[in-house]
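ok trying again, last paste got cut off:
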Amino acid sequence: MPTIGVAVAIPEPWASELQDYRTSVGDATAAMIPTHITLVPPTEIPDAALTDVETHLEGAAGAVSAFEVHLRGTGTFRPISPVVFVSLAAGISQCEQLADAVRRGPLRVDLEYPYHPHVTIAHHLDDAALDRAFDELSDFECRFRVDDFQLYVHDATLGWRPTRYFPLPSGT
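nice, full thing came through this time. structure:
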């Protein structure tokens, strides 16, 4: 069964900047994970369900118009989970609405934790590396428009690869 995920991709140049940073602090998984805001976490689905998932995502794309995201500063889920992330200062409610729309029907998943949109920059590292990431990117800031979201499929050799883009209505 393939493992899929649904996410908002972070555009360049920030995607590479944040992915390179994640690699520099020793996060071995960084090279296999495009920089993103998760909407649906890694989920196994039967091969036969992929068409239904894509049809569902086409419909879910109409739930939220294109929107602006402002990333600023860092946050952490410690001590619950060893994660440091870049925080959303704007676009939170739209990500929540979009995540709610996509996590229905064939992608209904029970989340381990409440949904909190973020961009991971350090994961499963020792406390010193997590502290370093938290401090060094505390002044990170960027803004971009979200015009679509992506369906990703995990490949054991290549990592997470986008296989389909779902445009959002243009809005205002």
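cool. The two ends are 40 Å apart (CA to CA). The chain has a mean pLDDT of 95.
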